[in-house]
Design goal:
Layout: E1 6-10, H1 16-25, E2 31-34, H2 37-46, E3 51-56, H3 63-72, E4 77-82, H4 87-95, E5 100-103, H5 108-117, H6 129-136, H7 146-158, E6 165-168, H8 175-184, E7 193-197, H9 203-211, E8 212-213, E9 225-226, H10 228-231, E10 236-240, H11 247-259, E11 261-263, E12 270-272, E13 276-281, H12 285-290, H13 296-302, E14 305-308, H14 319-334, E15 340-341, H15 343-351, H16 357-371, E16 376-377, H17 384-387, H18 407-425, H19 430-437, H20 441-450, H21 456-459
Parallel strand pairs: 1-2, 1-3, 3-4, 4-5, 6-13, 6-14, 7-10, 10-13, 15-16
Antiparallel strand pairs: 8-9, 11-12
Helix pairs in contact: 6-8, 14-16, 18-19, 19-20
Bound molecules: adenosine-5'-diphosphate and magnesium ion.
């Protein structure tokens, strides 16, 4: 099988990496092994892969190559395995965009976890259904807030239905997890789950990615290649960032949704495949339709059942659970024994606006666990942006008004309201209000004058 292989790059001379190669070969994965940077460059010129596992002794001498890989194989998930691991390398790898950094010796379960993160497990023969359910179903989604309970209840209602589902929500809110839960909790759960990121794959490639192509269909079509729709037979196709699809592909997609039949690029044979579609978007699709960028008929076809993934700032009560979940997970992955976070850290996490939602929280905790000084994460471990005083009460706006707005006016109005709130909260004791706002008393008095703020009881 030549589809979506896992590319294993062995640049490690310690001998450890051959154990890794053996472990991978035992998994019946479509695996390609290369042993030098030059070989890897050449292979990537004409091939694509789901994931790249870079096995090195230490990352340092390969830093430039890793950055190059990010560019050359932007659709592949990159894993780094190091036989001489270090904290610096771990941080550098994650900063460069690697999805995981694995330290030797690598246990079987640790390797599986990394492959899972890289989306490789779907290339493996299907595991028992019960296992799939507990690992990828609703159980993988953390949250007990009413907003999340609503999501779970919708998933349970529609997972067995064949209807198309549109998962909506900001980036990092767990849309892909919801799509996976719909698949693994449902009757198709033993079939393949096939994700396609319509935003990450350039237009021309996306078409052949979805529909496949016949040998010779275009210059680089060296062999026949099955598309994702075909690979998803018996399972679910997850079309992520659906709003990014070109108008030409939108037409083709509509036809596939209606007929479940299509041709490979350059082919004449009609292929039929039995798959369910779950799509996701972080855009306002109605607005895209209005602006003429998204087909209305396709919109109705996809939006049969919408599921809303709530932003983290609207379900702050889930933050402690998520923190506990991620700390436990990164303890396991990073071989650490962090007990938790201090009360003050928890208070700050609970107040922060989380523009990047759960993904931001997850990434932040991963770095904190790796870099932690003590066994409880303290304020000193928090990144700068969480310490900025202003970060606390400011919420991200859904969208800025199309016609524009006056930044200075909005800011000064906001400033006035915050000062008023601080004064009310401190019974108009200026010393305390100034302390709460972290400004000088004289500055506060000046601002009160400017905004004509006086206590109504003082007036009386
Ligand atoms: N409710 C949740 N519980 C646990 N992990 C979550 C939750 N929501 C999101 N995540 C994690 O956050 C990251 C982003 O989630 P993802 O589904 O890719 O978001 P989206 O597709 O909406 O951008 C993933 O690593 C995912 O595992
Ligand atoms: Mg996503």
């Amino acid at each position: 099988m030549t589809h979506n292989p896992l590319l294993l790059l062995l640049f490690d001379s310690s001998g450890r990496s051959s154990e890794l190669a053996k472990a991978l070969q035992g998994k019946a994965l479509p695996l390609v092994i290369l042993r030098s940077e030059a070989e890897a460059r050449r292979w990537l010129e004409t091939n694509q892969c789901q994931a790249i596992l870079l096995a090195v002794s230490s990352l340092q001498p390969h830093g430039v190559f890793l950055a190059e890989l990010q560019e050359a194989a932007s659709q592949s998930a990159i894993l780094v395995a190091a036989s001489a691991p270090s904290v610096n390398d771990a941080v550098a790898a994650l900063q460069a965009g690697a999805v995981d950094y694995i330290e030797a010796p690598v246990s079987e379960s640790r390797l599986d976890e990394a492959l899972d993160k890289a989306g490789v497990s779907r290339l493996l023969p299907p595991a028992g259904q019960s296992q799939a359910k507990t690992r990828k179903g609703c159980a993988a989604i953390i949250g007990t807030s009413s907003a999340m309970r609503q999501v779970f209840s919708l998933i349970n209602k529609v997972c067995d239905a064949e209807t198309t589902v549109l998962v909506r929500g900001e980036s990092g809110t767990g849309k892909e997890l919801i799509a996976q839960a719909l698949h693994y909790e449902g009757v198709r759960g033993t079939g393949p789950f096939v994700p396609v990121n319509c935003g990450a794959i350039p237009g021309e490639l996306l078409e052949s990615e979805l529909f496949g192509h016949e040998k010779g269909a275009f210059t680089h079509a060296i062999r026949t290649r099955l598309g994702r729709f075909e690979l998803a037979n018996g399972g679910t196709v997850f079309l992520d960032e659906i709003s990014e699809m070109s108008p030409m592909l939108q037409v083709k997609l509509l036809r596939v949704l209606q007929e479940k039949e299509f041709e490979r690029i350059g082919g004449t044979k009609t292929i039929s495949s039995d798959f369910r579609v779950v799509a996701a978007t972080n855009r306002d699709l109605e607005q895209e339709v209005e602006a003429g960028r998204f087909r209305e008929d396709l919109y109705y076809r996809l939006n049969v059942i919408p599921i809303e993934a709530p932003p983290l700032r609207e379900r702050r009560q889930d933050i402690p659970l998520l923190v506990e979940h991620f700390v436990a997970r990164f303890n396991r992955l990073r071989k650490k024994k962090i007990k938790g976070v201090s009360d003050e850290v928890m208070a700050r996490l609970a107040r922060y606006a989380w523009p990047g939602n759960v993904r931001e929280l997850e990434n932040m905790l991963e770095r904190m666990v790796i870099l932690a000084g003590g066994d409880v994460l303290s304020v000193a471990d928090l990144p700068e942006r969480l310490l900025e005083a202003g970060a606390a009460p400011v919420e991200r706006l859904e969208a800025l008004p199309e016609q524009g707005f006056f930044l200075n006016e909005v800011l000064s109005d906001f400033e006035k309201r915050l000062i008023l709130q601080a004064l009310e909260q401190t019974d108009w004791v200026k010393n305390r209000a100034a302390k709460l706002l972290n400004v000088n008393r004289t500055t506060l008095i000046e601002k009160m004058k400017r905004f004509k703020l006086v206590s109504s009881s003082a007036e009386a």
